[in-house]
Amino acid sequence: MPSPFVTRLASFQHEERLAVEDDARSRTFAELWDRAQRVRLALTEGAPSLEGRAVAILVSPGALWLEAFFGTILAGGVALPLSPLYPPAELAWFGEDARAAAVIVSEDQHERGALLCEGRRVLFAETLADGPRPEGDAAPLEPDDVALLLYTSGTTGKPKGAMITHANVDVQAAILREAWAFGEGDRLLHALPLHHLHGLGISLLTTLLAGAAARLLPRFEARRVWETFCRPNPPTVWMAVPTMYQKLFEAFDAADEPTRARWASGARGLRLATSGSAALPVTLAERWRAVTGTIPLERFGMTEIGVGATNTLDPSGRRSGSVGLPPRSVEARIVDEAGNDLERGPGELWIRGPSVFKGYLGREQATQDAFAEGRWFRTGDVAERAEDGYLRLLGRTSVDILKSGGYKLSALEIEEALRENAAVAEVAVVGLPDEAWGERVVAVVVAAPGRAAECAPEVLRGWAKERMALYKVPREVIVVMSLPRNALGKVVKPELVKAIVRGTVANMSRTES
Ligand code: MLC
Ligand code: AMP
Fold this sequence. Notes:
Elements: H1 4-10, E1 18-21, E2 26-28, H2 29-44, E3 54-58, H3 63-74, E4 78-81, H4 88-97, E5 102-105, H5 114-117, E6 121-124, E7 146-152, E8 160-165, H6 166-179, E9 187-190, H7 197-208, E10 213-216, H8 222-229, E11 237-240, H9 242-254, H10 257-268, E12 272-275, H11 282-292, E13 297-302, E14 306-310, E15 331-335, E16 347-352, E17 359-360, H12 364-370, E18 371-372, E19 376-385, E20 391-396, E21 401-404, E22 407-410, H13 411-419, E23 424-434, E24 438-447, H14 457-465, E25 476-480, H15 493-502, E26 509-512
Parallel strand pairs: 1-10, 3-4, 3-5, 5-6, 9-10, 9-11, 11-12, 12-13, 24-25
Antiparallel strand pairs: 1-2, 7-8, 8-17, 13-14, 15-16, 16-19, 18-19, 19-20, 21-22, 23-24, 25-26
Helix pairs in contact: 1-6, 2-3, 6-7, 8-9, 8-10
The chain binds malonyl-coenzyme A and adenosine monophosphate.
Organism: Polyangium fumosum
InterPro entries: AMP-bd_C (IPR025110), AMP-bd_C_sf (IPR045851), AMP-binding (IPR020459), AMP-binding_CS (IPR020845), AMP-dep_synth/lig_dom (IPR000873), ANL_N_sf (IPR042099)
Domain AMP-binding enzyme C-terminal: 413-490
């Protein structure tokens, strides 16, 4: 059976409708298909297929990004989208872990990607589609072939590459197209990063595989988003993480009255505004209602499972503080620690369905551990179910998984990186509740003898910025004499969080960024 993802994309290949536009370029579906075919030839150099080899994509968001992405897919490659927010060494690590055979890079990212590019074929996004068009339509592909690799942080060490298949991509788009009534007339305003499922699968591919158009902004900027709501031919759909709503309201509050009235009127033109990746505070939902008349549609998802629950498209069925019901063909269970079903919970949420991923690349044990019998995926989220089935998320089973601005972060991964600094004798990374970011990453550090100066917040943050994605860098560093540990020597993180909130962490010097 051919790839349903490619078949769906191919069905739009003669459409002269707009598919994507950015600040510099626009492409119809026909142009996008034609250029992706040329990228395919550039990548395969005439071979029938890349045979599942990974292609790293380090390209700024826009039409060129999509050409590189679809070209990789049509070539039978596995797309590995990478973020320009990563420092060079981490980019290189992803390339190695995924065994990327080639890198597609945009000129503005070339310097950052130099280490990643070393020893690999390098193709420039700007000229990649300039060559001839190949014979035939695509490499031979099966539904179960891997289409993309999305790296996600877990409770152990380094991030893991989640393998998402052609069938996963296609069915996820179909489920959301149906649940959210996407049609060819829709126009998505897009400002999410493209190396995660929210920005790539849930918003961009759902839109394009519905035959609808996307406008990609180079980055999220609150004023720009409001203004884009108001332009001629305005967007019909907006998808965001809660922190974006927070930042939209900060800009709104800072604007003068006529501007606010104009922005509000633009936002009321959207037929759908969604929120996901982290809990949407009720206060933000209510502010959006005050401006537009409805609360955003909140839904729950995860890299490994796609969308696991969604509120209704009909605003009257939406419930603030709840993530709604599993969409068509997705099943949810709430279980206790022994894996027994609980009617209402709270307990761990398990998900099963056709959008659930294939496994973690090269990590068989982690893949096995992630699933319970019957291919139920253990989300690690704690949920409870209302009488009518609506799900509410209460937190995570692990204190070491944090969510900041919608990014999932591993406290252990950040600790490991900080421990490489010889001035850091001990470190515990925790998430503190934060109105704007959901959780704020805080590193509590014991300095090595005589090296406290190197652990001063701005010094340590500066050091960390060279080594981890900017959004992983602790926003706050607290230097203490010792960390609270239990009898087994394990840091008691809940105690630590409470002590920080109360301001009673012993002997500390504390500075915020
Ligand atoms: C930026 N910074 C962050 C951060 N984003 N720090 C912590 N957490 C974050 N999420 C840092 C910057 O590096 C900078 O550091 C400082 O904060 C100020 O940056 P900013 O300009 O105010 O932030 P901005 O660039 O506007 O970014 C905010 C944001 C971004 C909300 C737009 O975080 C974002 O795009 N989040 C989306 C994450 C996402 O897509 N998650 C989906 C995962 S998939 P300094 O030191 O320079 O001051 C998933 C499945 C599902 O979860 O269901 O959706
Ligand atoms: P990621 O691994 O980056 O895909 O993040 C997935 C995690 O984001 C989930 O396991 C949840 O913890 C969290 N998440 C996603 N959507 C929501 C939501 N609407 N409310 C609360 N948490 C969410």
